[in-house]
Design a protein that fits this description.
It is built from no helices and 11 strands. By secondary structure, the chain is an all-beta fold.
């Protein structure tokens, strides 16, 4: 069982930055692919970013590419999402997700993740 706890959300003006953190309780954190997803009011949850267990590969949604950076610290069992140049359309509940892989893989597909955090709210004002 893996427990995920997000933090770092809040209210920020357009153009500002936030860094989200997700702390995981897992014996072998480095075997977990980690992902960030978000859900805006009235919309379906969507993929934001993902990172392989080693941290060697990352993937992003087109809407955040060049503005967001996903990273991880395997010594701290934590994954981060650095969000820069925030836009009002980035307003959403952000969720951390995890899945064990035997290899160094990651997924952009929501249904492939087994563990989810409770979410942290990000609100970007115009």
């Amino acid at each position: 069982q893996v427990q995920l706890v997000e933090s770092g959300g809040g209210l920020v003006q357009a153009g500002g930055s936030l860094r989200l953190s997700c702390a995981a309780s897992a014996r072998t954190f480095s075997r977990l692919a980690m992902g960030w997803f978000r859900q805006a009011p009235g919309k379906e949850r969507e993929f934001v970013a993902t990172i392989t267990g080693s941290g060697g590969d990352t993937y992003y949604a087109d809407s955040v590419k060049g503005r967001f950076t996903i990273s991880r610290d395997n010594a701290k069992n934590t994954v981060y999402l650095q969000m820069n140049s925030l836009k009002p359309e980035d307003t959403a509940e952000y969720y951390c997700s995890a899945r064990y892989y035997t290899g160094d893989y990651a997924s952009t597909r929501e249904y492939e993740y087994d563990y989810w955090g409770q979410g942290t709210q990000v609100t970007v004002s115009s």
